[in-house]
Amino acid sequence: METLAHIQQKLAGAEDLKSVVRTMKAMAAANIGQYELAVRALGKYHRTIALGIHACFSEKPTSVFLHKRAGQTRKAPLHCAVVFGSDQGLVGQFNDTLADFAAAYLADLPGDKEFWVVGERMRLRLLDMGLHPTKNFPLPGVVEGVTPLVSQILINSEEEVQSGRFNGVYVFNNQPKTGVGYTSVVERLLPLDEQWKQRFLALEWPTTLLPQVAGSRPGTLLALLHEYLFASLFKACAASLASENASRLTAMQRAEKNIEELLDHLNHQFHQLRQGLIDEELFDVISGFEALKKRR
Prior knowledge:
By secondary structure, this protein is of the alpha/beta class. The protein is built from 6 helices and 5 strands. Strands 3-2-1-4-5 form a 5-stranded mixed β-sheet, sandwiched between helices.
């Protein structure tokens, strides 16, 4: 049978845990704002760059691209998957959902697959699935840390595609849904080939005035391509971080609710046990009084 001291110890531990959960919930709520703001800002910038590339392709069709044709140096196709996960836990099914989505998507592609992972938890999840990431990048804790990470991934991926080793680079991440929750998405980042070009030619120019490219067209197109790749990776990372913090906030809200229910149960148990001990003491006093009264 539990004692009052034992229950008091449990209550103290639950209160400490509740304080930690509140702190993590506040941090997650604060972080969501900065990452969602970055996603919204990059969405508009990404759209502007895409329209600029559309203008370059529409003004004068070209078949010159930055990367070698797929399969130029390899007999078997090799695809690279850049997967954005989390470094910390307490995020629910955040990593599991994305890992399953990436594995299912890549299973439909012919050839071999190579995984580059952002976040230690995602690396461990892929290892559990029998997949072995070849590169692991640390996840930034603030928006300012996203730029160095994106630059590093972009340089490495462009080098591999330029050399003809990779047939394609695919970016997998979770992005916030309207309202509550997140969804897993994928974008084919590289190579810049005919299939990639058609995505921009399909865009509609927002006005009736035909666009014109000022200055050196190849130089303008090259600058836009670099900005497009950078913005695409940056947006994927920021969306993943926003989704991670939203998932952690939801998990902390559930944990806080469970802790409050536990505290209510422990308090009820404590008061019930305390009242029982008081009743026993009163019963002993009354019994002693009655015994003394009979003797007199």
